[in-house]
TrEMBL record:
Protein name according to UniProt: Carbamoyl phosphate synthase small chain
PANTHER family in the cross-refs: CARBAMOYL-PHOSPHATE SYNTHASE SMALL CHAIN, MULTIFUNCTIONAL TRYPTOPHAN BIOSYNTHESIS PROTEIN-RELATED
Residues the record marks as active site: C244 (nucleophile), H329, D331
GO biological process, one term: glutamine metabolic process
Reactions mediated catalytically: hydrogencarbonate + L-glutamine + 2 ATP + H2O = carbamoyl phosphate + L-glutamate + 2 ADP + phosphate + 2 H(+); L-glutamine + H2O = L-glutamate + NH4(+)
Pathway(s) where this gene product acts: Pyrimidine metabolism; UMP biosynthesis via de novo pathway; (S)-dihydroorotate from bicarbonate: step 1/3; Amino-acid biosynthesis; L-arginine biosynthesis; carbamoyl phosphate from bicarbonate: step 1/1
SUPFAM superfamilies per the UniProt record, alphabetical: Carbamoyl phosphate synthetase, small subunit N-terminal domain, Class I glutamine amidotransferase-like
Record-level Gene Ontology MF annotations: ATP binding; carbamoyl-phosphate synthase (glutamine-hydrolyzing) activity
Renumbered residue ranges of the record's region CPSase: 1-168
Domain of life according to the entry: Bacteria
Residue ranges of domain Carbamoyl-phosphate synthase small subunit N-terminal in the record: 1-131
Family the UniProt entry places it in: Belongs to the CarA family.
């Protein structure tokens, strides 16, 4: 069945349908990873977006039960050049096309994804629709659509839950949490209490955690400004770490500003310079916004990491509190685990804080 990918600048790409055949709209973005399509499609940070894979063949190892970052796909649709017809892997439960159909996830294949990626790089990310028929109204309706501003509210947990251990206790604020963050913490014996994005500081403080982690999530950080006073209060009481959207919110809470990147960073081998340890880490990234480096000067923030290629801010720390954040994913999944040590740094910060409190007492 023929389908059409229509961009808000008027470009139209023709391909073949797979998965669900319903009409779907979203922000068109691209991911440069050669693998990891299952993790990407279930990564909540892709909520509201149509995900283009630049690698020409997708789906060659199928779908398995271990690589979910959330319970179901959160990207609005898949765009690929070619879908593997005969996937093969010992963990495979079903093919990507079978899974897309089961999950009611629209897809389009046979698209020239190289040309499409070049167009996104030139014009920036764009509103897009995938439709069965292009009418006189298709483009006008697409261009008239307003950006979605409640992605975090839709994707955050609605209830508080706990992953209990006898280790240090961390309050995790869920803006669109990846399972791999929980796995990284569980591997280190951390007792994790997960709170919804609308939590207040008192609710967290009443649980007496040893530290706070701000998760990743979708959308514009300026849509979640209600959490900034909460972050400011918590960072004064205990160590704090932010990841991805959590990094941007940490920056906003401390006086910096953010901006939208032309086409974002979405892939698994982004080189980042750790300016504190004087080393290069290859990182997994998925974000469309960044912290403005020029806005750091008048704050108590200090830049700790930068992206090698475009020199955007990839890490921050507070000069006057035990708090830091990174734009990339130290949990990876998929991607290299070069930066996983940051979870250990956070736990060491918590241990030092507790030791200091004991000495003070």
């Amino acid at each position: 069945m023929q389908r059409y990918l229509v961009l808000e600048n008027g470009s139209i790409y023709t391909g073949e349908a797979f998965g669900a055949t319903k009409d779907v709209a979203g922000e068109l973005v691209f991911n440069t990873g050669m693998t990891g399509y299952q993790e990407s499609l279930t990564d909540i940070s892709y909520s509201g977006q149509i995900l283009t894979f630049t690698y020409p063949l997708i789906g060659n190892y199928g779908i398995n039960r271990d690589d979910y970052e959330s319970l179901k796909p959160t990207a609005n649709a898949i765009v690929a050049h070619e879908i593997a017809r005969r996937p093969s892997n010992w963990r495979q439960q079903m093919s990507l096309t079978e899974w897309a159909e089961k999950m009611d996830l629209p897809g389009i294949t046979g698209v020239d994804t190289r040309a499409l990626t070049k167009e996104i790089r030139e014009h920036g990310v764009m509103r897009t629709v995938i439709v069965n028929e292009v009418t006189d109204d298709t483009l006008a309706q697409l261009q008239a659509e307003k950006p979605v501003t409640d992605e975090v509210n839709k994707m955050t947990t609605k209830t508080t839950y706990v992953n209990p251990t006898d280790g240090p206790s961390i309050a995790l604020i869920d803006f669109g949490l990846k399972n791999s963050i929980l796995r990284s913490l569980a591997k280190r014996g951390v007792n994790v209490m997960v709170f919804p994005a609308n939590v207040d500081a008192k609710t967290i403080l009443d649980m007496d955690p040893d530290g706070v982690l701000l998760s990743n999530g979708p959308g514009n950080p300026e849509d979640v400004l209600h959490i900034l006073p909460v972050i400011r209060e918590l960072q004064e009481k205990m160590p704090l770490m932010g990841i991805c959207l959590g990094h941007q919110l940490f920056a906003l809470a401390n006086g910096a500003t953010t901006f939208k990147l032309k086409f974002g960073h979405r892939g698994f081998n982004h080189a980042v310079r750790n300016m504190v340890k004087n080393q290069i880490d290859f990182t997994s990234q998925n974000h469309g916004y960044a912290v403005d480096a020029k806005s750091i000067a008048e704050t108590n923030l200090e830049i700790t990491h930068e992206e090698i290629n475009d020199h955007t801010v990839e890490g921050l720390k507070l000069k006057n509190h035990a708090a830091f954040s990174v734009q990339f994913h130290p949990d990876a999944a998929p991607g290299p685990h070069d930066a996983e040590y940051l979870f250990d740094d956070f736990l060491a910060m918590i241990a030092q804080s507790k030791k200091g409190q004991l000495q003070h007492a």
